[in-house]
User: Fold this.
Amino acid sequence: MLVAFSVTPLGVGEDVGELVAEAVRVVRASGLPNRTDAMFTTVEGATWDEVMEVVRAAVAAVHARSPRTSTVIKVDWRDNATGALDAKVASVERRLGASA
Assistant:
């Protein structure tokens, strides 16, 4: 299961990088495979509960320092899939290389 999420603290001004970093710290401490880019952090786990607990804790860490929090979540739930965090990107990169 892959879960991509974005958490945005509201009511704290424009510079929210430190608060967003709190969410990423929680994800990285979870030990689950993850990747952070400019818009989302993606977490991979075996079960819905495993991944959503990490997302919940990451959002809670931001909300603890923000009066309001907005969260966007996208889920790719595929039974018995593992290694998708890297495999999905590698599949696209192979296709790009084949067309070059």
Notes: The beta strands are 2-10, 34-36, 41-44, 68-76.
